[in-house]
TrEMBL record:
Pfam families in the record: M20_dimer, Peptidase_M20
Catalytic activity entry: Hydrolysis of dipeptides, preferentially hydrophobic dipeptides including prolyl amino acids
Family: Belongs to the peptidase M20C family.
GO cellular component: cytosol
Keywords carried by this UniProt record: Cobalt, Hydrolase, Metal-binding, Metalloprotease, Protease, Zinc
GO molecular function annotation: metal ion binding; metallodipeptidase activity
Domain named Peptidase M20 dimerisation: residues: 212-293
EC number: 3.4.13.18
Top-level taxonomic group: Bacteria
Protein name: Cytosol non-specific dipeptidase
GO biological process entries: proteolysis
């Protein structure tokens, strides 16, 4: 794989390490190769390198001359990346490295996610560890695993392993933002069975498809009101079921819980005598949805095509309960923060809908910066699905990160940003799930902050990293490391 174009970008130290990292397949929960890669990297530098019992990698580097009296810092990023690709892209995430290219001021991937989330943070830390010229205090580099599908790396990091006083999390995605808080989250999974029935005579098969949506990060992008393929599909099927005799054979929508679903495909049967009316009605409903999302979802595709159908279909009672449950289940922003302007407090993403072979599985990710509000929405969703005969399980609950506006490292970053850029940074909490809140449970005295380069479209194949922002961010990192407070 030739990413020489990327390696020639400035700052070369950062982009070369990013290219090295992106050559290593690193899906969440399959990080064996990237863990080995990182341990080999630290060992070859002659630095203390350890892997903890869950797979996090920690590399320690002594302070450079003149900075021995500074507080030890923890530079932290996660090793895994979200794997999403366009339907027409042939790519094996388990075995291929990411293929990148330059598009103006942006680095993009060819039809897949880029891995800048959080690969640019990882690459930053690698470049600092490797450098012989950058001034810095003693560093603990913390590379966590499985951030994107459960934060199990951060959850499994035991107290007492880290020695640092200050944590620099490099997982914020706007270069003018300094993160001081984030949302917690919980996975909600609704499952049930249904009776399969054979096809009656006089029914014809159709494939119903929702495609071309933007998708994106289910935390950072939820405020945009983008289309959710699972909700759109359900709307199309609900409307059809109200007006015609339809039977659902299967539904396959969305993928990862932390990605707004971009695509959904359903196989249904329709009364042959209602074909023309069904197709006309679908056209009208599709036009209405296109109109509603005209300014947001310019590539939206809503389509039907007649197909041969030999599979079984869902019994009518279960079909009605399924459609009503997804119709009623909340998706999107649930509550805005009353205290921080323009911050989503609580939201839900109906991320995955699978109907096949007598089983239904619906996966959601509920986020909130307020635990009681998170619990309220979780209860709302649980009640909605249980009323429709589903079993509901909550898992992967993780805490938010409460802002500390008196943070000493915040004051350092604010002052340094103003000095370099002649303007004040945007100090904010975010609706994404950073690992700071989890790490803070075992390291409550650690002063934490989050920042990073500008990345757009994370968790989607439109993910892209700004080249000019990477240079701005790199300069910021170098200056921060020179100005860490004395212990």
């Amino acid at each position: 794989m030739d990413n020489q174009e990327i390696r020639n970008l400035e700052p070369k130290a950062l982009w070369n390490k990013f290219a090295d990292l992106n050559a290593v397949p690193r899906p969440s929960k399959k990080e064996e190769r990237v863990i080995a890669f990182m341990k080999d990297f630290g060992t070859k530098l002659g630095l203390e390198t350890i892997e903890d019992e869950v797979g996090n990698v920690i590399i320690r580097k002594p302070a450079t001359a003149g900075h021995e009296d500074k507080k030890m810092i923890v530079m932290q990023s996660h090793l895994d990346m979200v794997h999403q690709k366009n339907n027409d892209t042939e790519f094996d995430f388990d075995n291929q490295g990411i293929e990148m290219y330059v598009d103006g001021d942006w680095v993009r991937a060819k039809g897949t996610t880029l891995g800048a989330d959080n690969g640019l943070g990882v690459a930053t830390i690698m470049a600092v560890l490797e450098s012989t010229t950058i001034e810095h205090p003693a560093i603990e580099a913390l590379f966590t695993i499985d951030e994107e599908t459960g934060m199990t790396g951060a959850m499994g990091l035991k107290g007492g392993i880290l020695k640092g006083d200050i944590l620099l999390n490099l997982d914020t995605e706007d270069d003018d933002e300094i993160g001081v808080g984030c949302a917690g989250g919980v996975d909600i999974t609704a499952t049930r069975t249904y009776t399969e029935e054979g096809l009656d005579d006089g029914l014809v098969g159709y494939e119903v498809k929702v495609a071309g949506l933007n998708g994106g990060h289910s935390g950072m992008d939820i405020i945009k009101g983008l289309g959710n393929a699972n909700k759109m599909m359900n709307r199309l099927l609900y409307n059809a079921a109200e007006n015609f005799e339809i039977r659902i054979s299967s539904i396959d929508g969305g993928s990862l819980r932390n990605a707004i679903p971009r695509e959904s495909v359903a196989i249904i049967a329709v009364d042959e005598n209602q074909k023309a009316a069904f197709e006309a009605d679908f056209t009208d409903m599709a036009a209405a949805i296109h109109g509603e999302y005209a300014s947001l979802e310019k590539e939206l595709e809503l389509s039907i095509k007649q197909i041969a159908l030999n599979d079984n279909v869902m019994n009518l009672e279960s079909q009605s309960q399924l459609l009503k449950a997804i119709c009623a289940a909340h998706n999107g922003v649930y509550r805005m923060s009353p205290d921080i302007a323009d911050l989503v407090e609580t939201s839900n993403n109906i991320a995955r809908v699978m109907v096949k072979d007598g089983g239904i599985k619906i996966g959601c990710l509920t986020r909130s910066s307020v635990d009681s509000s998170k619990d309220d929405l979780a209860n709302t969703l649980t009640a909605t699905f249980e009323l429709a005969g589903f079993d509901v399980a909550l898992s992967g609950d993780y805490p938010g990160w409460a802002p500390n506006m008196d943070s000493a490292i915040l004051k350092v970053l604010e002052a340094k940003y103003k000095e370099i850029n002649n303007e004040a940074p945007h100090v904010a909490a975010c609706h994404a799930g950073l690992e700071c809140g989890i790490l803070g449970q075992n390291y409550p005295e650690m002063d934490m902050i989050s920042f990073g380069p500008t990345i757009k479209g994370a968790h989607s194949p439109d993910e892209r990293a700004s080249i000019s922002s990477a240079q701005k961010y790199w300069d910021f990192v170098i200056e921060i490391l020179k100005d860490i407070p004395v212990a």
